[in-house]
Amino acid sequence: MPLYHDDDQAMLAETASQFMAEEGAIAKQLRHWRDRNCKDGFGHGLWKQFAEMGFTGMLVSEDDGGLGMGSYEAGIVLEEIGRNLTPSPFLASSVLAATALKHADDAARQRWLPGLVSGDLVYSVAIDEGAKHRPERIKTRAEKSGNGFRLTGQKDFVLHGASADMLVVAARTSGADDDADGITLFAVPKDAANMSHDAVRLVDSSMASHTKFEGVELDGDAVIGEVDGGREVLNAMLTAGRIGAAAEGVGVARGAMDMTVDYLKQRKQFGKLIGEFQALQHRAAHLYSEVEIARAVTMKAAQLLDGGSEKADLMASVAKAKVAKAAGLAVREGVQMHGGIGMTDEYDIGLYMKRDRALQEFLGDMYYHASRVADMSGY
Amino acid sequence: MSDPDAFRADVRAWLEANCPPEMREPVRDEADVYWGGRNATFKNDAQKAWFEACRDKGYTVPEWPKAYGGAGLTPAEGKILRQEMSRIGARPPLSSFGIWMLGPALLHFGTEGQKQRFLNEIAAGKIRWCQGYSEPGSGSDLVSMQTYGEDKGDHWVVNGQKIWTSYADEADWIFCLVRTDKENKYQGITFMLFDMASEGVSTKPIKLISGNSPFCETFMDDVKVPKSYGEDIPGYVGQINRGWDVAKYLLGHEREMISGAGGGDRTSAIGAAMKRMAGELDPVLRAQLAMFDVDALAYSAMGEKFLDEMKSGKGHPAQPNMMKYVGTELNKQRHELMMSVGGSRALEWESEDTGGGKPSRNWLRTKANSIEGGTSEVMLNVISKRILDLPGA
């Protein structure tokens, strides 16, 4: 398969681009909800519109009422989300939770997927324990209790955890904290007793929670996939999520870069457009190169994942790390080249910097993923 | 195209039958590279057999039309062939500036007569070409060139000097930019073709910091260049005084080639090989290697996207400049890291262990990557101007 959009994908890109620029625009969504101190950090009305566009269930199979598309198509939508800094539960619900639910039995899929596809419900995932992403180590425990399980532990960086209707929780059902095996995934509904959220607003105005499970009682049918066999599902979810986060990061990078290049063509100093200065031209050209490459490897990773290639996991880490480097450069150069106004809240470039910071941390930063590349390559 | 799976199976079977095991080993030194030409000799029978099999099949230039010595493969088929060759580690059967640079220019600008003659010779490895672009005092700034061809009716008399002409001392013919109009800076250059054995042509190797000298100075002293070598075979490509169009087109191919030869087209992480070499890696060095591998693996994905886009006509015409810039910078970085991993062993300049100082000579050689074919700074200028559309760039 060639590494560019085919006709259908180009049409999807066009549609998503238009929709996000109109309905998901910064003034209409991010600033609107932020300035009202919205407890969810995103608008449910927009999420319903996502559903009407067919985005919410794009990774859900056609048999389950979705569009049966792949990571590549989800990446197209995420890139536009990133460009417009559109706040939504798309990454958590439609990519991460949807990927986990692919592995669930019929009953669980029938219970959770219609609400996701229709946009009536939003989901999230609870993986991290602590400030850094270390999914190799899962401490949260689920012990057998009657016909079900009893969940105890704490999860951090749960995206919009307090407003999610269901959380996919990775917990340990056997073995030691560092074991690969012994993991089970659970679908924990919003109204579960003994679950509490300490919701915090993050630097990018999104909401995340420290979620506590203090003996949450779960039925046996809360299990997604196999008991003790959840690592594989968790990994599938992580790979899809990392590629998705990379795609959103590419959008953030492109949005910041476009703003900056436009600014270089408008701002005058010393009687010249600042874009005439070679010092800035070279930095802009270098930035362009890095962003293009980050975009290419993200598309490649998605293509490998959709094609079932065993290289997808490695390329997902390469993409996540490369995007972190490129998008980090894009937002830093963006703020610097804008000069003083780049530091003002009124101007959007700073919002890109904030979003990038949050995305970089989500599902592993560039150091985590570079180290993974080394591990997987055998050094 | 034909059924891709069937084509792949055919290619696989053909390679199995025709690519000798010795030709599936990595290239170790210059003698492992076959350049063709009038005075060419083969290093061994395997090299000869592999070259001849490919030549007869059209696989020295797989995507050129059959009429000009190619195999007439579609881009998709060409990609499959490259993938299959790379899968078994097959060496290129023929390396040639004729294939990489002159060929694409002739396919685009050449007359039918030129294509029949020169493309077939290139594909069959009969004539080895070199490129005469740069001059002392005009490196990346080609329009300032001084070599002059005086119009004498049916021929020009060319005087001047070229520099950085790779392998000029071993080449049979040269494709050369010559000023034919002193008044017009851009539209006064002609893209000429002539025999290096012509009277008045001489070459002198330039010794580099690596101790090697693939490059030459080339002097032209009253060289007679015919305007025609026969019916429909002009002694120049494109139009007289419009050589700049050809040169620009061709520079795109050169940049593509250099970027392809650069750091990014290797799809496996270098860290693994480095660990085998060094044993234990210092944690900080391991981290540097890992960050490099992220960049290099990402660049290889870009390389694939770039080629797919170029072949489908979707690519931006200035994209080769970006590939060249990043590819050559990465290649320099790769060799800096290899020197660090190699430690004191990598410093050995002449020992047998290092194959005559390969690590350090290669490291020094890569420093030219971001200079030759247009400096990194010139590449950044082109990106600024032609892709980002920045003012006054």
From TrEMBL, chain A:
GO molecular function: acyl-CoA dehydrogenase activity; flavin adenine dinucleotide binding
InterPro entries: Acyl-CoA_Oxase/DH_mid-dom (IPR006091), Acyl-CoA_Oxase/DH_mid-dom_sf (IPR046373), AcylCo_DH-like_C (IPR036250), AcylCo_DH/oxidase_C (IPR009075), AcylCoA_DH/ox_N (IPR013786), AcylCoA_DH/ox_N_sf (IPR037069), AcylCoA_DH/oxidase_NM_dom_sf (IPR009100)
Cofactor: FAD
Span of domain Acyl-CoA dehydrogenase/oxidase N-terminal: 7-120
Residue intervals of the Acyl-CoA oxidase/dehydrogenase middle domain: 136-201
Pfam families registered for this protein in UniProt: Acyl-CoA_dh_1, Acyl-CoA_dh_M, Acyl-CoA_dh_N
CDD domains listed in its UniProt record: ACAD
Annotated Acyl-CoA dehydrogenase/oxidase C-terminal domain residues: 229-373
Keywords: FAD, Flavoprotein, Oxidoreductase
Organism domain of life: Bacteria
Family to which this protein belongs: Belongs to the acyl-CoA dehydrogenase family.
PANTHER family from the UniProt entry: ACYL-COA DEHYDROGENASE, ACYL-COA DEHYDROGENASE FADE28
Protein name: Acyl-CoA dehydrogenase
Annotated source species: Qipengyuania gaetbuli
Taxonomic lineage of the native organism: Bacteria, Pseudomonadati, Pseudomonadota, Alphaproteobacteria, Sphingomonadales
